[in-house]
Design brief:
Distance between the termini: 53 Å
CATH architecture of one domain: Alpha-Beta Complex
Largest sheet: 4 strands, antiparallel
Shape: globular
Structural class: mainly alpha
Helix content: 25-40%
CATH class of one domain: Alpha Beta
Number of helices: 8
Low-confidence stretches: none
Radius of gyration: 25 Å
Amino acid sequence: MGPIGVAKHLVPFMPSHPVVPCGGDDPLGPIAAAPWGSASILPITYMYIKTMGSEGLKKGTAVAVLNANYMAARLKEAYPLLYTAPNGRNAHEFILNINPLKTKTGISEKDIAKRLMDFGFHAPTMSWPAVGTLMVEPTESEYKAEMDRYIEALVTIREEIRQVEDGEMPADNNPLVNSPHALTKICQEEWDHPYSREQAAFPLPWVKAAKFWPSARVNDEFGDRNLVCSCPPMESYEDVKIEIEAPTERIKQKA
């Protein structure tokens, strides 16, 4: 909810809506069913505030800041941090700058995001608010053991990048650029990679306890620019006949 700000030269292209008059003089068309955002966001926020209360909100905020700074402190030796305060601290989130690594090795923030899937993790926010970065926001809900696993995964990935830096792994054939490793890929008879299947699928021992098998790598940019719908076309519903029997008729028949 709330206003969306754009630069002046983008005002004519603000999205329109088929029902609610809005948008610029040369709009791109609608991008959402709700032109001003989803109203369900407000009740969720309201209930969270009411449930936590004044003291709960204060503690939750403190824990969120503590969690972010704990993770940042443990990762700063592996990855350069971006936009830290003069004292080296962060607020409730921190940003890993992947650009220096990308310049040296060609490994991008996208490759790290895909490799995290092999560890069973969803990637953090990618390339926002700065291009070539990963923004980690553990929030107040994550417990220490889970944060430690995430840290261990990112440190392991950094060591794999270091192998590319040192020439131990080729830049075009390593666990990152080939990630994520789907089950079908691991089970293939031929394996033409300079690392083992175990490193590909089970990079750390605890991954074996509850392995999440990702699908093959998808083209993110293509998916963002091309709507792909797996739903059947509307024409397929034309011949479907649904017979609805009134509850009162069923009751009479049973009686």
